[in-house]
Protein backbone atom coordinates (compact mmCIF):
# COMPACT_ATOMS: atom_id res chain seq x y z
CA UNK A 1 0.00 0.00 0.00
CA UNK A 2 1.01 3.59 -0.69
CA UNK A 3 -0.18 6.80 0.94
CA UNK A 4 -2.00 9.08 -1.50
CA UNK A 5 -1.95 12.79 -0.59
CA UNK A 6 -4.52 15.05 -2.21
CA UNK A 7 -5.86 18.50 -1.40
CA UNK A 8 -9.02 16.83 -0.12
CA UNK A 9 -7.24 14.48 2.27
CA UNK A 10 -4.92 11.53 2.78
CA UNK A 11 -5.86 7.91 2.10
CA UNK A 12 -4.36 4.53 1.32
CA UNK A 13 -3.79 3.55 -2.31
CA UNK A 14 -3.53 -0.07 -3.33
CA UNK A 15 -0.58 0.07 -5.73
CA UNK A 16 2.75 -1.58 -6.34
CA UNK A 17 6.00 0.03 -7.45
CA UNK A 18 7.53 -0.53 -10.88
CA UNK A 19 11.26 -0.67 -11.70
CA UNK A 20 11.08 2.70 -13.50
CA UNK A 21 9.88 4.59 -10.42
CA UNK A 22 6.18 4.41 -11.22
CA UNK A 23 3.13 2.80 -9.65
CA UNK A 24 0.60 0.29 -10.93
CA UNK A 25 -2.91 0.23 -9.42
CA UNK A 26 -5.49 -2.55 -9.90
CA UNK A 27 -7.76 -2.15 -12.90
CA UNK A 28 -10.83 -3.25 -10.94
CA UNK A 29 -10.65 -0.59 -8.21
CA UNK A 30 -11.46 3.16 -8.25
CA UNK A 31 -8.58 5.52 -8.88
CA UNK A 32 -8.73 9.26 -8.16
CA UNK A 33 -12.49 8.98 -7.91
CA UNK A 34 -12.80 7.26 -11.32
CA UNK A 35 -14.20 3.75 -11.80
CA UNK A 36 -13.48 1.45 -14.75
CA UNK A 37 -16.55 0.61 -16.79
CA UNK A 38 -16.86 -1.41 -20.05
CA UNK A 39 -16.84 1.82 -22.09
CA UNK A 40 -14.09 3.59 -20.13
CA UNK A 41 -13.29 5.20 -16.77
CA UNK A 42 -16.11 7.29 -15.29
CA UNK A 43 -16.61 9.75 -12.46
CA UNK A 44 -20.26 10.61 -12.15
CA UNK A 45 -21.51 11.59 -15.60
CA UNK A 46 -18.01 12.31 -16.93
CA UNK A 47 -16.22 9.46 -18.70
CA UNK A 48 -12.79 8.92 -20.19
CA UNK A 49 -13.35 6.69 -23.24
CA UNK A 50 -11.74 3.27 -23.18
CA UNK A 51 -9.61 3.98 -26.25
CA UNK A 52 -8.04 6.98 -24.44
CA UNK A 53 -7.66 5.21 -21.12
CA UNK A 54 -5.81 2.40 -22.89
CA UNK A 55 -2.69 4.60 -22.95
CA UNK A 56 -2.41 4.17 -19.17
CA UNK A 57 -3.46 0.53 -18.92
CA UNK A 58 -1.38 -2.64 -18.96
CA UNK A 59 -2.39 -6.24 -18.28
CA UNK A 60 -0.76 -5.83 -14.84
CA UNK A 61 -2.68 -2.69 -13.87
CA UNK A 62 -3.12 1.01 -14.56
CA UNK A 63 -0.13 3.35 -14.57
CA UNK A 64 -1.00 5.85 -11.82
CA UNK A 65 1.01 8.78 -13.17
CA UNK A 66 -0.16 8.27 -16.75
CA UNK A 67 -3.77 7.92 -15.67
CA UNK A 68 -3.51 11.07 -13.54
CA UNK A 69 -2.34 13.01 -16.58
CA UNK A 70 -5.24 11.70 -18.67
CA UNK A 71 -7.79 12.98 -16.12
CA UNK A 72 -6.15 16.37 -15.64
CA UNK A 73 -3.99 15.65 -12.59
CA UNK A 74 -0.28 15.52 -11.84
CA UNK A 75 1.28 12.74 -9.76
CA UNK A 76 4.60 12.86 -7.91
CA UNK A 77 5.71 9.45 -6.65
CA UNK A 78 8.23 8.71 -3.91
CA UNK A 79 8.73 4.96 -3.83
CA UNK A 80 11.19 5.12 -0.92
CA UNK A 81 8.61 6.89 1.27
CA UNK A 82 5.76 4.82 -0.21
CA UNK A 83 3.78 7.95 -0.98
CA UNK A 84 2.28 9.71 -3.99
CA UNK A 85 0.92 13.27 -4.12
CA UNK A 86 -1.53 14.66 -6.63
CA UNK A 87 -2.21 18.20 -7.84
CA UNK A 88 -4.44 19.74 -10.47
CA UNK A 89 -2.90 19.63 -13.93
CA UNK A 90 -4.04 20.75 -17.36
CA UNK A 91 -6.31 19.44 -20.08
CA UNK A 92 -10.09 19.34 -20.68
CA UNK A 93 -10.81 17.19 -17.61
CA UNK A 94 -8.80 19.43 -15.26
CA UNK A 95 -11.44 22.16 -15.12
CA UNK A 96 -8.93 24.96 -15.22
CA UNK A 97 -8.86 28.61 -14.22
CA UNK A 98 -10.70 30.90 -16.62
CA UNK A 99 -11.98 34.47 -16.46
CA UNK A 100 -15.50 33.21 -17.12
CA UNK A 101 -15.53 30.89 -14.12
CA UNK A 102 -14.17 31.32 -10.61
CA UNK A 103 -13.48 27.80 -9.29
CA UNK A 104 -15.77 26.87 -6.43
CA UNK A 105 -14.42 25.57 -3.14
CA UNK A 106 -15.79 24.60 0.25
CA UNK A 107 -13.58 24.86 3.31
CA UNK A 108 -14.23 25.26 7.05
CA UNK A 109 -17.96 25.45 6.43
CA UNK A 110 -17.65 28.25 3.86
CA UNK A 111 -18.24 27.85 0.13
CA UNK A 112 -17.76 30.33 -2.67
CA UNK A 113 -20.97 29.08 -4.29
CA UNK A 114 -22.80 29.98 -1.08
CA UNK A 115 -21.89 33.62 -1.71
CA UNK A 116 -23.31 33.68 -5.24
CA UNK A 117 -25.27 36.89 -5.80
CA UNK A 118 -22.69 38.96 -3.93
CA UNK A 119 -19.37 40.41 -4.98
CA UNK A 120 -16.52 38.59 -3.23
CA UNK A 121 -12.97 39.78 -2.59
CA UNK A 122 -10.91 36.65 -1.87
CA UNK A 123 -7.93 37.80 0.22
CA UNK A 124 -5.05 35.32 0.39
CA UNK A 125 -2.69 35.88 3.35
CA UNK A 126 -0.55 33.91 5.81
CA UNK A 127 0.89 34.24 9.30
CA UNK A 128 4.36 33.90 7.78
CA UNK A 129 3.80 37.14 5.84
CA UNK A 130 3.67 40.70 7.14
CA UNK A 131 0.25 40.87 5.51
CA UNK A 132 -1.08 39.17 8.66
CA UNK A 133 -1.20 42.65 10.18
CA UNK A 134 -3.61 43.72 7.42
CA UNK A 135 -6.36 41.31 8.40
CA UNK A 136 -8.13 43.74 10.78
CA UNK A 137 -8.12 46.36 8.00
CA UNK A 138 -9.66 43.87 5.58
CA UNK A 139 -12.29 43.23 8.25
CA UNK A 140 -12.96 46.99 8.33
CA UNK A 141 -13.48 46.97 4.56
CA UNK A 142 -15.85 44.06 4.95
CA UNK A 143 -17.81 45.93 7.64
CA UNK A 144 -18.02 49.00 5.41
CA UNK A 145 -19.00 47.30 2.16
CA UNK A 146 -20.95 44.23 3.31
CA UNK A 147 -24.23 46.21 3.36
CA UNK A 148 -23.54 47.13 -0.28
CA UNK A 149 -23.32 43.52 -1.43
CA UNK A 150 -19.58 42.80 -1.04
CA UNK A 151 -18.05 40.06 1.09
CA UNK A 152 -14.39 39.88 2.06
CA UNK A 153 -13.42 36.19 2.24
CA UNK A 154 -9.96 35.63 3.70
CA UNK A 155 -7.96 32.50 2.90
CA UNK A 156 -4.93 31.71 5.04
CA UNK A 157 -2.19 29.74 3.29
CA UNK A 158 -0.77 28.48 6.59
CA UNK A 159 0.05 24.79 6.60
CA UNK A 160 -0.90 24.59 10.30
CA UNK A 161 -4.27 25.97 11.36
CA UNK A 162 -3.02 27.01 14.81
CA UNK A 163 -0.67 29.50 13.17
CA UNK A 164 -3.56 31.36 11.52
CA UNK A 165 -6.27 31.24 14.17
CA UNK A 166 -4.94 33.98 16.52
CA UNK A 167 -4.74 36.48 13.66
CA UNK A 168 -8.27 35.67 12.53
CA UNK A 169 -9.55 36.01 16.10
CA UNK A 170 -7.88 39.42 16.41
CA UNK A 171 -9.45 40.61 13.16
CA UNK A 172 -12.87 39.39 14.27
CA UNK A 173 -12.63 40.80 17.81
CA UNK A 174 -14.15 44.23 17.13
CA UNK A 175 -16.04 43.31 13.95
CA UNK A 176 -19.60 44.37 13.28
CA UNK A 177 -20.06 41.25 11.14
CA UNK A 178 -17.04 38.88 11.15
CA UNK A 179 -15.94 38.16 7.61
CA UNK A 180 -15.79 34.51 6.48
CA UNK A 181 -12.26 33.20 7.05
CA UNK A 182 -10.85 29.81 6.03
CA UNK A 183 -7.48 28.13 6.50
CA UNK A 184 -6.10 26.40 3.40
CA UNK A 185 -3.70 23.96 5.08
CA UNK A 186 -3.55 21.64 2.06
CA UNK A 187 -3.17 24.37 -0.57
CA UNK A 188 -6.52 23.56 -2.21
CA UNK A 189 -7.68 27.14 -2.84
CA UNK A 190 -4.19 28.45 -3.60
CA UNK A 191 -3.92 25.74 -6.24
CA UNK A 192 -7.31 26.55 -7.75
CA UNK A 193 -6.40 30.23 -8.10
CA UNK A 194 -2.68 29.81 -8.87
CA UNK A 195 -1.57 31.96 -5.94
CA UNK A 196 2.21 32.23 -5.91
CA UNK A 197 2.66 34.76 -3.10
CA UNK A 198 0.71 36.69 -0.50
CA UNK A 199 -0.92 39.08 -0.19
CA UNK A 200 -2.94 38.25 -3.28
CA UNK A 201 -6.55 39.30 -3.89
CA UNK A 202 -9.02 37.94 -6.47
CA UNK A 203 -12.38 39.59 -7.13
CA UNK A 204 -15.35 37.41 -8.07
CA UNK A 205 -18.58 38.99 -9.30
CA UNK A 206 -22.19 38.10 -8.44
CA UNK A 207 -22.37 35.52 -11.22
CA UNK A 208 -19.20 33.69 -10.21
CA UNK A 209 -16.90 35.24 -12.82
CA UNK A 210 -13.45 36.61 -12.09
CA UNK A 211 -13.69 40.40 -12.20
CA UNK A 212 -10.09 41.08 -11.17
CA UNK A 213 -7.51 38.27 -11.32
CA UNK A 214 -4.56 37.64 -9.01
CA UNK A 215 -3.60 41.11 -7.75
CA UNK A 216 -1.12 42.11 -5.06
CA UNK A 217 -3.13 44.35 -2.73
CA UNK A 218 -2.63 45.56 0.83
CA UNK A 219 -5.10 47.06 3.29
CA UNK A 220 -2.50 49.07 5.25
CA UNK A 221 0.76 50.85 4.38
CA UNK A 222 2.73 49.10 7.12
CA UNK A 223 5.23 47.60 4.67
CA UNK A 224 4.93 50.13 1.86
CA UNK A 225 8.67 50.85 1.97
CA UNK A 226 9.28 47.20 1.03
CA UNK A 227 6.42 46.50 -1.37
CA UNK A 228 5.72 49.93 -2.85
CA UNK A 229 1.96 49.34 -2.63
CA UNK A 230 -0.62 52.06 -1.89
CA UNK A 231 -3.41 50.65 0.26
CA UNK A 232 -5.57 53.75 -0.22
CA UNK A 233 -5.70 53.21 -3.98
CA UNK A 234 -6.66 49.56 -3.66
CA UNK A 235 -9.26 50.44 -1.04
CA UNK A 236 -10.82 53.06 -3.29
CA UNK A 237 -10.83 50.59 -6.19
CA UNK A 238 -12.67 48.07 -4.01
CA UNK A 239 -15.27 50.69 -3.03
CA UNK A 240 -15.76 51.68 -6.67
CA UNK A 241 -16.39 48.06 -7.60
CA UNK A 242 -18.75 47.47 -4.66
CA UNK A 243 -20.76 50.65 -5.19
CA UNK A 244 -20.58 51.24 -8.95
CA UNK A 245 -19.70 47.82 -10.37
CA UNK A 246 -16.48 49.18 -11.92
CA UNK A 247 -13.72 46.59 -11.46
CA UNK A 248 -11.21 48.70 -13.40
CA UNK A 249 -10.62 45.98 -16.01
CA UNK A 250 -12.74 44.89 -18.94
CA UNK A 251 -13.26 41.24 -19.88
CA UNK A 252 -10.32 41.18 -22.28
CA UNK A 253 -7.98 42.70 -19.69
CA UNK A 254 -9.12 40.17 -17.12
CA UNK A 255 -8.40 37.35 -19.55
CA UNK A 256 -4.97 38.81 -20.40
CA UNK A 257 -3.89 39.33 -16.79
CA UNK A 258 -5.19 36.01 -15.47
CA UNK A 259 -2.26 33.81 -14.44
CA UNK A 260 -3.09 30.27 -15.49
CA UNK A 261 -0.80 27.60 -13.97
CA UNK A 262 1.92 26.09 -16.12
CA UNK A 263 2.70 22.35 -16.11
CA UNK A 264 5.82 23.15 -14.05
CA UNK A 265 3.78 25.02 -11.45
CA UNK A 266 1.32 22.13 -11.20
CA UNK A 267 4.11 19.63 -10.66
CA UNK A 268 5.74 21.95 -8.11
CA UNK A 269 2.49 21.97 -6.14
CA UNK A 270 2.41 18.17 -6.07
CA UNK A 271 5.99 18.14 -4.76
CA UNK A 272 5.02 20.78 -2.16
CA UNK A 273 1.98 18.78 -1.06
CA UNK A 274 4.18 15.72 -0.60
CA UNK A 275 6.83 17.79 1.21
CA UNK A 276 4.25 19.17 3.65
CA UNK A 277 2.92 15.69 4.44
CA UNK A 278 6.41 14.26 4.92
CA UNK A 279 7.37 17.15 7.22
CA UNK A 280 4.30 16.56 9.38
CA UNK A 281 5.24 12.88 9.52
CA UNK A 282 8.69 13.81 10.82
CA UNK A 283 10.52 12.80 7.63
CA UNK A 284 12.47 16.04 7.33
CA UNK A 285 15.14 14.89 4.87
CA UNK A 286 12.60 13.54 2.38
CA UNK A 287 10.47 16.67 2.82
CA UNK A 288 13.41 18.91 2.02
CA UNK A 289 14.17 16.88 -1.11
CA UNK A 290 10.67 17.49 -2.47
CA UNK A 291 10.76 21.15 -1.46
CA UNK A 292 13.96 21.54 -3.46
CA UNK A 293 12.29 19.86 -6.43
CA UNK A 294 9.34 22.27 -6.15
CA UNK A 295 11.71 25.25 -5.99
CA UNK A 296 13.56 24.06 -9.09
CA UNK A 297 10.30 23.74 -11.03
CA UNK A 298 8.75 27.02 -9.83
CA UNK A 299 11.44 29.24 -8.28
CA UNK A 300 9.02 32.20 -8.29
CA UNK A 301 6.41 30.44 -6.13
CA UNK A 302 7.01 32.15 -2.79
CA UNK A 303 3.81 30.64 -1.39
CA UNK A 304 5.49 27.25 -1.61
CA UNK A 305 9.05 28.19 -0.75
CA UNK A 306 8.35 30.54 2.14
CA UNK A 307 5.13 28.87 3.18
CA UNK A 308 6.86 25.56 3.93
CA UNK A 309 9.72 27.12 5.91
CA UNK A 310 7.95 26.68 9.28
CA UNK A 311 7.46 22.97 8.57
CA UNK A 312 11.11 22.47 7.63
CA UNK A 313 12.52 24.28 10.65
CA UNK A 314 13.37 27.57 8.93
CA UNK A 315 12.27 31.03 10.03
CA UNK A 316 10.03 32.62 7.36
CA UNK A 317 11.01 36.04 8.74
CA UNK A 318 14.70 35.23 9.12
CA UNK A 319 17.82 34.61 7.05
CA UNK A 320 16.17 31.97 4.83
CA UNK A 321 13.52 34.45 3.71
CA UNK A 322 15.98 37.24 3.00
CA UNK A 323 18.16 34.80 1.07
CA UNK A 324 15.08 33.90 -0.99
CA UNK A 325 14.33 37.59 -1.64
CA UNK A 326 17.92 38.16 -2.76
CA UNK A 327 17.81 35.13 -5.06
CA UNK A 328 14.61 36.30 -6.73
CA UNK A 329 15.85 39.86 -7.11
CA UNK A 330 19.06 38.63 -8.75
CA UNK A 331 16.97 36.54 -11.14
CA UNK A 332 14.67 39.45 -11.98
CA UNK A 333 11.64 37.64 -10.51
CA UNK A 334 9.18 40.08 -8.90
CA UNK A 335 7.96 39.38 -5.38
CA UNK A 336 4.83 41.47 -5.87
CA UNK A 337 2.65 41.61 -8.97
CA UNK A 338 0.10 44.43 -8.69
CA UNK A 339 -2.37 45.04 -11.49
CA UNK A 340 -3.16 48.53 -12.84
CA UNK A 341 -5.44 50.51 -10.52
CA UNK A 342 -7.89 52.89 -12.14
CA UNK A 343 -7.42 56.49 -10.89
Automatic annotation (TrEMBL):
PROSITE patterns: THIOREDOXIN_2. It holds the Pfam family AhpC-TSA. It comes from the Bacteria. GO terms for molecular function: antioxidant activity; oxidoreductase activity. SUPFAM superfamilies: Thioredoxin-like. Residues 96-234 form the Thioredoxin domain. CDD domains: TlpA_like_family (cd02966). InterPro entries: AhpC/TSA, Thioredoxin-like_sf, Thioredoxin_domain, Thioredoxin_ResA/DsbE_sf. PANTHER family: THIOL:DISULFIDE INTERCHANGE PROTEIN DSBE, THIOREDOXIN-LIKE PROTEIN HI_1115. This is Alkyl hydroperoxide reductase subunit AhpC.
Amino acid sequence: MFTAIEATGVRELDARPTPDGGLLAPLDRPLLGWTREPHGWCRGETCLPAFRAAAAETPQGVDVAAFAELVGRVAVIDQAERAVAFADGTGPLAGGLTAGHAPDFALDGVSLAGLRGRKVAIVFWASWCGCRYDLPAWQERHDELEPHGLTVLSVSLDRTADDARPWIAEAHAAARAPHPAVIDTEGLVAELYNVINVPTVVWVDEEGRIARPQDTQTATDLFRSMNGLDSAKSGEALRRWALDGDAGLDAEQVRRHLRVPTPEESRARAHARLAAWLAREGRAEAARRHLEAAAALAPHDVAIRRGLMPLTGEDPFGDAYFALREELERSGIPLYRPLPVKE
